[in-house]
Amino acid sequence: MLTRAEVDQAAQDLLQAEADRRQIGLLSLRHPGITLDDAYAIQSAQMARKLAQGRRIIGWKIGLTSKVMQDALGIDTPDSGVIYDDMDFPDGSTVPAGRFIQPRIEAEIAFVLKGPLHGQVTRDQVLTATDYVAPAIEILDTRIQRADPVTGQPRRIFDTVADNAANGGIVLGGQRHAPEDVDLRWVGAILTKNDQVVATGLGAAVLNDPVMGIVWLSDRMGQYGQHLEAGQVVLAGSFVAPVECPPGTDIHADYGPFGSVSVRFA
Predict the structure, then answer these.
(1) pTM metric for this prediction
(2) Confidence band, pLDDT 50/70/90 cuts, at residue 69
């Protein structure tokens, strides 16, 4: 268990890394006894500072929802992070050069809420609280090194959670659907990078049902005194592996009848 001072220092280091566009070392090496509670405390400490600086929370993201990604990190649970108003990029927009450190993207289904969700909820309650679902791209960025350059140790879930679940931005597609009108398990995407197909996937890769990601998130947030609010967007989890986006990358995600969404990195 970290002390309050250690939590505050880690939060400050991550915020400074974000401002300076540079990465810091693994918190799991700095604090070998770090827990998930500590990691979420570090995330919350950053949230408090961002809100004090005038940032606004527009939603939440869920990560590590696929079995492949969980096995790779030796975990059996997803993670979550905060989406702030300055992370919102319009469909078809260009991300300015230098905006991120090492941007990657993932294809996801976004849930936009019309009602709040508190603590333990059912699948039906999530659907009732959802205004619409839409195609989305999540932009990932890491303020913590992906692996320690000396030992080779990769990031652990504690590092990822503390780093706001590697969240960088969201690009929301314009096509909207009532969630009960679509079998989200079968919503798929063909992801192209500079006109080359680099990934394909189906919604079922997200906990076998993207709606269950929202069920998990509401429960997780309830454990930390948080809840989902009407008007917020939730990225339910990726059903493709992350795609690297160096400068000059054009990304297009084709969801077929569900819609499409694109973004470019200058």
Answers:
(1) 0.95
(2) low
